[in-house]
């Protein structure tokens, strides 16, 4: 059997330090008989030398267009916008299956080049569950941003820009420091606590010293009674991590926050789910996504706020949270992808790849019509 060759491309999105393969997963693939080419990439959280040390071959940055066309190219984020035909097989997130802006021109590039797209968002197991996702570290990082925002607020300041942490240890140390050694005494509520993002948020709070009894963990059973929920007013940080799939009553409302008055304990809302523009958003108290340079937005309570001297409430609504912890997020994500990658040599029969290819072909047919090709 011939060796399966896989090519890790560089990422071109600004600030993207995560990677679809890590030195750990690349080594496991090499041990299984793969040949791995890795494009040199200064913005990747892993040094090129870490890949070289485990047996990968380093190649020039952004040289994948010249790779042999039978070598699959793996990356994370969408390729820069272009009309160039794509003759290779690409394994990546492409954000073009749900009618997103420019979806048909992305798929048209594959049609013109004869290439194939395996969109990682749609790699699923036999039960339909995604084989890998960044959720855990989204929740972990969201909870971290919430804790940092609370600490800043408690010392009368606004949270400044967030920079990706080198690793989890550095993040935990930084947060514990701003709380004077431990966040013991802080009270939090995580909704969607049984999911990927929710379990990450709960773990972060544990690791920074929040007492177990002060981490309220809610999921479907606890919200079945229907919101809005008074319990949200009575914690310091509320983190929303639900997967929104239908219309549900709001969890929290502006009127409720105003009615809670000066005694309100709630200081920070972190919306990890970030269904900001979804008409069913259960946190309808803000309307913008925040960013690493500007991680919080104050809740606008209008003149009521100063007339009644209401305490500040900050919202964190960053939609690319895992980038705050690129090393661990990449490791966990890539490890989840590994069993599927190991089946790449059997991609004409392995369920995860045949299903993804079937979906690609359906979407490509739609794009051909939409583009009039
Ligand atoms: N902000 C970011 O950077 C970022 C990154 C990754 C994922 N996300 C988003 O986070 C959300 C959650 O993703 P996930 O991978 O954790 O999903 P998941 O399916 O693993 O978990 C979702 C959880 O929400 C619970 N849930 C659903 N509806 C609920 C309700 N009405 N009340 C209480 N609990 C409810 C489910 O039971 C489940 O436990 C998704 O919308 C995803 O797009 C955001």
Please describe the topology of this protein.
Layout: E1 5-8, H1 23-31, E2 35-39, H2 48-53, E3 57-59, E4 73-74, E5 89-92, H3 103-113, E6 116-119, H4 135-154, H5 168-178, E7 188-191, H6 196-207, E8 215-218, H7 220-223, H8 230-233, E9 237-240, H9 254-260, E10 268-271, E11 297-298, H10 303-307, E12 314-316, H11 326-342, H12 351-371
Parallel strand pairs: 1-2, 1-4, 2-3, 4-5, 5-6, 7-8, 7-9, 9-10, 10-12
Antiparallel strand pairs: 11-12
Helix pairs in contact: 1-11, 3-12, 4-5, 4-6
The chain binds nicotinamide-adenine-dinucleotide (NAD).
The site of nicotinamide-adenine-dinucleotide (NAD) has 26 residues, from α4, α6 and α7.
Question: What can be said about this structure in brief?
Answer:
The protein is of the alpha/beta class. Helices cover 34% and strands 12% of the residues. It has helices at residues 23-31, 48-53, 103-113, 135-154, 168-178, 196-207, 220-223, 230-233, 254-260, 303-307, 326-342, 351-371, and strands at residues 5-8, 35-39, 57-59, 73-74, 89-92, 116-119, 188-191, 215-218, 237-240, 268-271, 297-298, 314-316.
What is the overall shape? globular
What proportion of the residues is helical, as a percent range?
25-40%
Number of domains: 2
Bound molecules: nicotinamide-adenine-dinucleotide
End-to-end Cα distance? 38 Å
Family: Belongs to the AlaDH/PNT family.
Enzyme class: oxidoreductase
Pfam family, one: AlaDh_PNT_N
GO cellular component, one term: cytoplasm
């Amino acid at each position: 059997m011939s060796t399966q060759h896989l090519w890790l491309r560089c990422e071109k999105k600004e600030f993207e330090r995560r990677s679809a393969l890590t030195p750990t997963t690349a080594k496991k693939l090499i041990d299984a008989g793969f040949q791995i080419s890795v494009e040199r990439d200064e913005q990747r959280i892993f040094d090129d030398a870490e890949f070289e040390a485990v047996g990968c071959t380093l190649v020039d940055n952004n040289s994948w267009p010249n790779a042999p066309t039978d070598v699959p190219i793996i990356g994370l984020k969408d390729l820069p916008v272009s009309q160039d035909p794509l003759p290779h097989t690409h394994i990546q997130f492409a954000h073009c299956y749900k009618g997103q802006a420019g979806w048909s021109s992305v798929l048209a590039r594959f049609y013109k080049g004869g290439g194939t797209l395996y969109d990682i968002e749609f790699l699923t197991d036999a039960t339909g569950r995604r084989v890998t996702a960044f959720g855990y570290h989204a929740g972990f990082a969201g909870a971290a941003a919430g804790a940092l925002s609370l600490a800043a607020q408690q010392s009368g300041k606004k949270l400044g820009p967030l920079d990706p942490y080198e690793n989890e240890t550095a993040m935990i140390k930084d947060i514990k420091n701003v709380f004077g050694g431990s966040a013991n005494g802080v009270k939090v509520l995580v909704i969607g606590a049984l999911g990927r993002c929710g379990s990450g948020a709960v773990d972060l709070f544990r690791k920074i010293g929040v007492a177990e009894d002060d981490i309220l963990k809610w999921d479907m059973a606890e919200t079945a009674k229907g919101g809005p929920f008074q319990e949200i007013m009575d914690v310091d940080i509320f983190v929303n991590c639900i997967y929104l799939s239908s219309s549900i009553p709001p969890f929290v409302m502006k009127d409720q926050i105003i009615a809670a008055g000066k005694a309100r304990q709630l200081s920070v809302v972190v919306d990890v789910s970030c269904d900001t523009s979804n008409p069913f958003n259960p946190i309808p108290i803000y309307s913008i996504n925040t960013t690493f340079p500007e991680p919080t937005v104050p809740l606008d309570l209008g003149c009521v706020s100063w007339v009644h001297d209401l305490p500040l409430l900050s919202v964190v609504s960053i939609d690319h949270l895992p980038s705050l912890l690129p090393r661990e997020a990449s490791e966990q994500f890539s490890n989840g992808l590994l069993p599927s990658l190991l089946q790449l040599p059997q991609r004409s029969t392995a369920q995860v790849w045949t299903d993804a290819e079937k979906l690609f072909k359906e979407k490509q047919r739609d794009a051909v019509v939409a583009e009039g090709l």
